[in-house]
Design a protein that fits this description.
Distance between the termini: 8 Å
Shape: globular
Number of helices: 3
């Protein structure tokens, strides 16, 4: 499935758009689940927010769907991409998906 990437002025706008599409689970609260079972998730949409003056304001919002149909979001802020983080796994999944598509 093609992943859609959007750019919005704010993270809250991206979260609002995703909620309207049924992405209601907060997967940030389930980071360990994503890390342990990342193959059970598919990135459906990616929203990027880039701070105009401060890189610390940058964030990526992922619209994720699990194999069992659960839809939710994961917000990765600037600096969240440490080697053992769910954000790093999601970024890798996103890059792999683009090269396969």
């Amino acid at each position: 499935m093609d992943r859609q990437m959007y750019h919005y002025a704010t993270v809250s706008k991206a979260l609002q758009e995703l909620a309207e599409k049924g992405y209601t689970t907060d997967f940030n609260l389930e980071e360990d689940r994503i890390k342990a079972n990342y193959k059970d998730f598919e990135i459906m949409e990616i929203y990027r927010y880039e701070g105009e003056s401060d890189p610390g304001d940058e964030a990526t919002v992922y619209g994720i769907k699990s194999k069992d149909g659960q839809k939710g979001v994961f917000v990765a802020g600037y600096g969240a991409f440490s080697e053992n983080s769910a954000a790093k796994l999601l970024d890798t999944m996103s890059i792999q998906g683009r090269s396969q598509g």
